[in-house]
């Protein structure tokens, strides 16, 4: 009973219900949306978003933000694709992409933790820099005609039409989830975001934890980039443009608070699936893609506002109940008169 | 003079000495294979001809305001000519007029502005021509999938970048007219069109959804160079081939070769963008060099051949657009790519 | 390994620290031995917390060294301090707001969950505190947060424990059980620093005492060597006298009309309140933490919903008005939580003082001249120690911040002032100043409602007192009945008439 | 502690001076590289290209002083632009009436987001992110309501409207006059009025502001309204400048706006800052981009130097104002 109650209180559950409701609603209008094959396509379509949302979750949990992951993803994808095209072994290309992500993440982390630049500013700045570097690196050209085998990775399915990358994402997410919730080391991220001074007081290395969060975020964007390359098959100078905002939106929809310390990567994953599915929903609803942004905006604001109000109400209710409980029923209390 | 394209002072100095002209070559958006290959072609051509240098500079996000800034900079930087593919049908008019007043030659290519704001448009064809070309591509693709465009009931839809992009929408409109006249048996299942905003991943998502939501669709026309490979990838993901659905549109040969080989796409089209870029830059140089052109002139372009200046009304359909000192140059031809000829191209 | 008996557990040698141009510690030397409780006292801003934060590795000293058992030890990070068995229970709670009480305590321990849970439950039972482990920290009151912080410290098996004003918001019982535990710890040979402003506590639990003033330790030694007056003298700057409220003039109730009147006033956390306050009267409100005093005050002030009853100000019904309206009508409130509700930390002292009165001083444009005059007036009147009114509020010492908050409340020339714990956490000198401010208010005919958990304060200042117990008024005391015993008994709900 | 307040203040003053120095340096250096850069009409003309950012960042400063952030201003530009075009062309309104309508639309958009921020306690970043999606989507919806096709843009505005960006008074370009007027207005509003003081106080400590009898929520909400309104003014200027109303104008302005505000000395945690710094910083960034471009750097690379400038300047700022970092550096150098 208690467990069930707790489950329902968990933010990711309400995000999940939101996802479910969205799918069902669209299914009501257009039943072909609910075909298992299509649901799997929705999942396949979210493999990149899930990874970047999980990476972003690390940073947001520590109370910071990373507005540069779109460009990080683009840069890592460009590097990965270039090497693949030049027939480098896949492993090398993937490792180089990861290296790019790690370096980008380290630079962000350095700026935030050592130079004390507010993360939103630091990463807005590096977003411009990394994006510029993609142009420098690719000369603005498309990287295309990648080895068919590598592209084939994203088309390797298990369970019917489900891409194995999606399963890989889920496994990664689960591991990260356990790491963040169950291990002493992993709990640090939320602790730092919850109360930096308090974390410092009990010996949690705040700066190092934040640094690590940015590096992990970079690594996840790079991993996302590898999947992107495999899934899309070509990389342009604007690859990943705007993904940072989508990842932030995914995290928020998934119940991760931007002020840090609250939320789980399971939520981020659900948010990622929602964000990746919106453009698909519209096709099935026969609504013009013009309304893509409108719907995203309304959804984002609605979910967050409703959640925030509900949260506030329950806190306020609890407070009032507790206060009311203090007051004795009879006049005078235990005082003998 | 210097051959550097990056040293502003060098270029202006060379402009003053008059031995080498500086042409600022503006794409609609940077990082798009269409425009990049136009630049490649133009740069190579400029090296061969050797009378002008090309400074390639564009907006990364296809923003009008960026293009205005770039043109303003071209003026103040002391460039001699501008060749621009406009993001907006009218948004560049003012600044291009200003450029002409400042003595720069103004050429548009690929995507036009108001006729009196520029001197020459180097066009791949009027919207009508390209609309018809798209219909022709569609016919061929349908035939390859075993349909008879003239008799069978055909369900089709459009998938391109955005509702706000000028040229793609004008081609769409023109093609719709042709279809309405010629093929009453075709049915557009999504008159609002599908857009993927030049986001490659979104192109796949939208592509997959289109194929699933309309599982009896026969034809998808993708007149955008990001949407076409995305749509093809989507078909591949769903295991659909040429036989199941006809997918065609505009994209560079390189972007589509794989899908053609895999039997997902039969044919698609484009024009020689490198050639278009070269002609645009040459025309800008030619005008900047003090030459005047009038309708009916034939100009001999080294390495390329002769082109003719025709009336603006050829592309706008409005006789009122025929103004002095302004005209259109058509590209010789558009190419349709298939498995047979795609390896002859590398862009 | 042989232990060197002669070496102190912790030796602080010539520690110096400045913040910008503000030299806070000018060479501190101090020793702590096993089984000692060293009470650290000193005025607000003397640098007590700063010194402790240096030991804990939260701040780094500019110069000087720390020795543990005679070995020079690097404590420049809190992880190093923890590794050396040092733990600080901070002055202002630093909990993780989104974690439960249990998670908060367990965070930073290495034991497994089940063991930890047992330990926590045992400790709470031992102390007899009332604390639910599954509540989220952001729903705790300050007092409860402080309990959690203390628990965190007690559960740690440290060699050196530092308590920074642990009892400032604890109830009498809670404090007593803490003292018992400290006795236990003493026996276990743990060294303890104990910071407090309550001199009686020094004699109750400390073995040694050290007084900090002007950045140095001005006096130290075993507690037995001193008495209270000694310490008070050492605390004050040379040549100054401790001020008291002075002789208060009795209120003439026969002619007076009540200024503030509560009729069956109920809200969240309190119920059925009936009392009145007269102009020129100080009404003390006694009670233990959680009695609902803050709640009724903030509800009058328009911060929470009224459930029933009436509030009359000068005969006018102001029940349920919003804060702005209430302010306009002539009530002002000095909040209990200075940091959360009182100060604008990163702005000028002048801005702080004028913030409530701006509305009346200026229509659209700021009247900087009037603002400056207002701030200057209060800085002079209240002897707020600032370099200029442009000094940032956050860089003032606690007592001076408190005076500025009171100044803000008085700037609106209210008819009624509600002071909620006005002297919590401020030093003896500043306390005297606050008392004389309250005395002045009384003379000006302002009705003062004095909420305090420091019952001595109520005894010293009030003309009349009420006591609250579990959300209700359980007693009203005329001047002559106000004494410590009566108030204490009533606060705990065990007062008997005639006792 | 004696001089703490004063040094802080003089530091802020010198911060603005430093920005001016950077600006002068930029002009000198770019003037060396390309002498045409120094022509007055060239410099003045360049303002057109970044005027929107200047105008908006002035009022986003208000938002950031309350501790918020506004990343939706860019999409309000497009919405305003297409609204004015649609009202003028399809509804046949006088262009200036349409402009006022458009400003009201911008104000309402800002207020809507501001409402959510102030009254529901959702983080400003999330609300305005949602707003940026929503308003850019609405802009497309407006296009769909209009008879013209989205891609065509709406052009052919009356001469008087076009003068907004191309005319001049006594040789001073109109848009510069608008900018200066807005600087003066925002300066007075923020630093000389009671409202401005409230904006600061709400940013420092909203709860303490409540206890001071300040209505925090309307104040916070209003700052978003102001920034929405400034975005629509920028949208009008941009529409006039381009001679064409489009729904996607301004989509890329988020980074430069926030950059200008922060570079100008406003802290992103609220309570501190000023519009003069913002104004200078916006010009510094605009001139930097313009100058680099004139020196031959292609536009797509421009974000690299701007990003680097941002980081370098902030590093300098953070290290000089953070005693802990200074101490760390001293320690490092001292040990050597
Ligand atoms: N982080 C800081 N930055 C600047 N000044 C500081 C900082 N921390 C403390 N100070 C200043 O150092 C001085 C000593 O502060 P500290 O908190 O140590 O005093 P305290 O003795 O603990 O006073 P209290 O009894 O009020 O707690 C004060 O003047 C305070 O303003
Ligand atoms: N759940 C809560 N959320 C926010 N603030 C709270 C909550 N519970 C208590 N507080 C606030 O914490 C402060 C201290 O509360 P406490 O439990 O000491 O009760 P109190 O009514 O202040 O008791 P007293 O009789 O001592 O005034 C008060 O300002 C109270 O309003
Ligand atoms: Mg202290
Ligand atoms: Mg209280």
TrEMBL record, chain A:
One of its GO terms (cellular component) is plasma membrane. Its main location: membrane. It is found in: Cell membrane. Keywords: Cell inner membrane, Cell membrane, Membrane, Transmembrane, Transmembrane helix, Transport. GO terms for molecular function: transmembrane transporter activity. It is a multi-pass membrane protein. InterPro entries: ABC_transp_permease. The chain crosses the membrane at residues 41-60, 90-110, 117-138, 158-180, 211-230, 242-258, 291-310. Part of the ABC transporter complex LsrABCD involved in autoinducer 2 (AI-2) import. Probably responsible for the translocation of the substrate across the membrane. The complex is composed of two ATP-binding proteins (LsrA), two transmembrane proteins (LsrC and LsrD) and a solute-binding protein (LsrB). This is Autoinducer 2 import system permease protein LsrC.
UniProtKB/TrEMBL annotation, chain C:
Keywords: ATP-binding, Nucleotide-binding. It is an enzyme of class 7 (translocase). GO terms for cellular component: plasma membrane. This is Autoinducer 2 import ATP-binding protein LsrA. Part of the ABC transporter complex LsrABCD involved in autoinducer 2 (AI-2) import. Responsible for energy coupling to the transport system. The lineage of its organism: Bacteria, Bacillati, Bacillota, Clostridia, Lachnospirales. The keyword Translocase does not apply. Belongs to the ABC transporter superfamily. AI-2 autoinducer porter (TC 3.A.1.2.8) family. Its main location: membrane. The complex is composed of two ATP-binding proteins (LsrA), two transmembrane proteins (LsrC and LsrD) and a solute-binding protein (LsrB).
TrEMBL record, chain D:
The chain crosses the membrane at residues 12-30, 42-65, 95-119, 172-190, 224-243, 249-266, 273-292, 304-326. Keywords: Cell inner membrane, Cell membrane, Membrane, Transmembrane, Transmembrane helix, Transport. CDD domains: TM_PBP1_transp_AraH_like. It is found in: Cell membrane. Its main location: membrane. The keyword Transmembrane applies. One of its GO terms (molecular function) is transmembrane transporter activity. One of its GO terms (cellular component) is plasma membrane. It is a multi-pass membrane protein. InterPro entries: ABC_transp_permease. This is Autoinducer 2 import system permease protein LsrD.
């Amino acid at each position: 009973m208690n467990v069930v109650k707790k489950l329902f209180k968990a933010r990711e559950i309400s995000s999940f219900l939101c996802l479910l409701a969205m799918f069902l609603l669209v299914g009501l209008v257009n039943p072909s949306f609910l075909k298992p094959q299509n649901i799997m396509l929705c999942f396949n379509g979210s493999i990149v978003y899930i990874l970047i949302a999980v990476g972003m979750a690390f940073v947001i949990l520590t109370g910071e933000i990373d507005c540069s992951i779109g460009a990080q993803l683009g840069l890592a994808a460009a590097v990965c694709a270039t090497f693949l095209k030049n027939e480098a072994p896949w492993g090398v290309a993937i490792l180089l992409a990861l290296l790019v992500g790690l370096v980008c993440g380290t630079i962000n982390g350095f700026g935030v933790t050592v130079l004390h630049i507010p993360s939103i500013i630091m990463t807005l700045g590096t977003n411009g820099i990394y994006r510029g570097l993609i142009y420098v690196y690719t000369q603005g050209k498309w990287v295309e005609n990648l080895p068919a085998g590598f592209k084939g990775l994203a088309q390797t399915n298990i369970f019917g039409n489900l891409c194995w990358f999606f399963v890989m994402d889920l496994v990664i997410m689960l591991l990260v989830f356990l790491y963040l919730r169950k291990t002493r080391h992993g709990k640090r991220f939320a602790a730092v975001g919850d109360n930096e001074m308090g974390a410092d007081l009990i010996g949690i290395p705040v700066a190092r934890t934040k640094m690590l969060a940015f590096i992990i975020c970079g690594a996840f964007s790079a991993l996302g980039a590898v999947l992107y390359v495999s899934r899309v098959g070509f990389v342009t100078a604007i690859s990943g443009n705007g993904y940072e905002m989508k990842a932030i939106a995914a995290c928020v929809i998934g119940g991760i608070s931007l002020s840090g310390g609250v939320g789980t990567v399971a939520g981020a994953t659900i948010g990622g699936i929602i964000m990746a599915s919106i453009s698909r929903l519209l096709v099935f609803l026969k609504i013009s893609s013009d309304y893509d942004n409108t719907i995203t905006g309304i959804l984002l604001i609605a979910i967050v506002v409703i959640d925030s109000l509900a949260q506030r109400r329950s806190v306020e209710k609890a407070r009032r109940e507790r206060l009311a409980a203090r007051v004795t029923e009879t006049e005078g209390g235990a005082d003998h008169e | 003079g210097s051959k550097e394209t990056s040293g502003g002072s060098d270029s202006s100095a060379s402009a003053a000495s008059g031995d080498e002209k500086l042409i600022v070559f503006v794409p609609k958006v940077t990082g798009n294979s269409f425009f990049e290959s136009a630049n490649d072609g133009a740069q190579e051509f400029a090296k061969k001809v050797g009378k002008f240098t090309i400074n390639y500079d564009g907006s990364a996000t296809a923003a009008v305001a960026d293009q205005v800034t770039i043109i303003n900079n071209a003026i103040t930087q002391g460039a001699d000519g501008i060749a621009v593919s406009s993001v907006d049908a009218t948004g560049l008019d003012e600044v291009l007029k200003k450029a002409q007043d400042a003595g720069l030659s103004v050429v548009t290519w690929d995507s036009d502005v108001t006729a009196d704001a520029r001197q020459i448009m180097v066009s791949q064809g009027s919207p009508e021509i390209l609309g018809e070309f798209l219909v022709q591509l569609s016919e061929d693709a349908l035939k390859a999938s075993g349909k008879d465009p003239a008799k069978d009931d055909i369900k089709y839809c459009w998938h391109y970048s955005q509702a706000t992009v000028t040229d793609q929408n004008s081609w769409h409109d023109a093609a719709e007219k042709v279809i309405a006249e010629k093929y009453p048996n075709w049915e557009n299942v999504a008159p609002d069109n599908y857009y993927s905003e030049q986001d490659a991943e979104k192109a796949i998502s939208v592509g997959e959804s289109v194929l699933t939501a309309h599982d009896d669709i026969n034809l998808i026309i993708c007149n955008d160079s990001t949407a076409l490979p995305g749509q093809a990838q989507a078909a591949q993901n769903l295991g659909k081939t040429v036989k199941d659905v006809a997918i065609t549109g505009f994209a560079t040969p390189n972007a589509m070769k794989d899908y053609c080989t895999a039997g997902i796409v039969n044919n698609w089209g484009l024009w020689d963008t490198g050639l278009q870029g070269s002609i645009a830059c040459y025309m800008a140089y030619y005008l900047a060099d003090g030459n005047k052109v009038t309708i009916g002139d034939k100009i001999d372009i080294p390495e390329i051949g002769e082109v003719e200046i025709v009336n603006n009304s050829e592309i706008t359909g409005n006789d009122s657009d025929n103004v002095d000192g302004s005209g259109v140059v058509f590209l010789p031809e558009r190419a349709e790519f298939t498995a047979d000829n795609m390896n002859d191209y590398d862009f | 390994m042989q232990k060197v008996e002669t070496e102190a557990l912790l030796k602080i040698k010539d520690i110096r620290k400045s913040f910008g141009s503000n030299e806070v510690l000018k060479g501190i030397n101090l020793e702590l031995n096993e089984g000692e409780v060293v009470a650290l006292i000193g005025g607000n801003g003397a640098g007590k917390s700063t010194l402790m934060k240096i030991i804990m590795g939260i701040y780094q000293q500019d110069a000087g060294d720390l020795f543990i058992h005679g070995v020079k030890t690097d404590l420049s990070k809190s992880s190093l301090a923890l590794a050396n068995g040092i733990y600080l229970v901070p002055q202002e709670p630093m909990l993780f707001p989104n974690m439960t009480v249990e998670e908060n305590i367990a965070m930073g321990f290495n034991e497994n969950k089940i063991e930890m849970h047992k330990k926590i439950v045992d400790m709470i039972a031992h102390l007899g505190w009332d604390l639910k482990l599954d509540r989220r920290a952001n729903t705790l009151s300050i007092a409860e947060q402080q309990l959690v912080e203390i628990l965190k410290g007690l559960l740690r098996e440290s060699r050196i424990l530092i308590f920074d004003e642990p009892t400032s918001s604890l109830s009498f019982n809670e404090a007593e059980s803490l003292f018992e535990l400290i006795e236990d710890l003493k026996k276990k040979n743990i060294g303890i620093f104990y910071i407090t402003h309550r001199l009686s506590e020094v004699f109750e639990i400390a073995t040694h005492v050290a007084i900090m003033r002007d950045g140095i330790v001005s006096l130290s030694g075993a507690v037995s060597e001193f008495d209270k007056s000694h310490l008070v003298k050492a605390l004050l700057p040379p040549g100054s006298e401790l001020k008291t409220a002075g002789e208060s003039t009795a209120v003439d109730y026969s002619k007076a009309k009540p200024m503030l009147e509560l009729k069956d006033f109920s809200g969240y956390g309190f119920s059925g309140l009936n009392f009145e306050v007269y102009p020129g009267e100080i009404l003390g409100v006694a009670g233990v933490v959680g009695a609902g005093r803050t709640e009724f005050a903030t509800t009058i002030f328009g911060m929470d919903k009224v459930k029933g009853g009436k509030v009359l100000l000068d005969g006018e019904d102001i029940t349920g008005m919003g804060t702005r309206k209430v302010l306009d009508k002539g009530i002002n409130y000095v909040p209990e939580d200075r940091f959360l509700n009182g100060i604008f930390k990163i702005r000028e002292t002048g801005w702080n003082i004028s913030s409530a009165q701006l509305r009346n001083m200026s229509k659209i444009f700021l009247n900087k001249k009037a603002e400056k005059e207002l701030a200057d007036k209060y800085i002079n009147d209240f002897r707020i120690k600032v370099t200029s009114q442009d000094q940032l509020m956050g860089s003032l010492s606690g007592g001076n911040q408190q005076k500025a908050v009171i100044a803000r409340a008085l700037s609106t020339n209210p008819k009624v002032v509600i002071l909620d714990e006005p002297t919590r956490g401020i030093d003896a000198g500043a306390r005297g100043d606050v008392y004389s401010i309250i005395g002045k208010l009384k003379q000006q005919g302002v009705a003062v409602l004095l909420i305090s958990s420091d019952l001595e304060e109520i005894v010293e200042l009030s003309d009349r007192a009420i006591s609250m117990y579990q959300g209700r008024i359980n007693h009203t005391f005329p001047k002559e009945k106000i004494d410590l015993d009566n108030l204490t008994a009533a606060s705990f709900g065990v007062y008997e008439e005639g006792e | 502690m004696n001089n703490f307040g004063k040094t802080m203040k003089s530091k802020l003053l010198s911060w603005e001076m430093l920005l001016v120095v950077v600006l002068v340096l930029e002009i000198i250096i770019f003037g060396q590289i390309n002498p045409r850069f120094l022509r007055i009409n060239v410099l003045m003309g360049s303002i057109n290209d970044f005027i929107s950012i200047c105008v908006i960042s002035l009022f986003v400063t208000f938002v950031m002083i309350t501790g918020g952030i506004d990343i939706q201003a860019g999409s309000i530009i497009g919405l305003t632009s297409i609204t004015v075009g649609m009202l003028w062309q399809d509804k046949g309104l006088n262009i200036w009436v349409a402009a006022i309508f458009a400003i009201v639309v911008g104000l309402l958009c800002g207020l809507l987001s501001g409402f959510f921020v102030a009254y529901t306690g959702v983080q400003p970043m999330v609300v305005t992110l949602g707003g940026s999606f929503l308003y850019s989507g609405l802009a497309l919806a407006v296009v769909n309501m209009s008879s013209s096709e989205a891609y065509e843009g709406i052009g052919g505005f009356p001469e008087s409207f076009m003068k907004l960006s191309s005319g001049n008074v006594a040789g001073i370009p109109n848009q510069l006059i608008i900018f200066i007027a807005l600087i003066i207005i925002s300066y007075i509003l923020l630093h000389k009025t009671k409202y401005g003081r409230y904006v600061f106080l709400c940013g420092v400590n909203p709860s303490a502001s409540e206890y001071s009898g300040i209505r925090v929520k309307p104040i916070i909400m209003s700052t978003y309204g102001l920034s929405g309104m400034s975005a629509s003014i920028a949208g009008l200027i941009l529409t006039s400048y381009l001679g064409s109303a489009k729904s996607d104008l301004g989509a890329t302005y988020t980074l430069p706006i926030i950059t200008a505000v922060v570079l100008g000395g406003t802290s992103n945690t609220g309570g501190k800052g000023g519009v003069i710094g913002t104004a200078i910083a916006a010009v510094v960034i605009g001139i930097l981009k313009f100058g680099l471009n004139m020196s031959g750097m292609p536009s797509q690379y421009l974000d690299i130097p701007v990003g680097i400038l941002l980081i370098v300047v902030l590093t300098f700022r953070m290290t000089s104002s953070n005693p802990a970092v200074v101490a760390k550096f001293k320690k490092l150098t001292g040990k050597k």
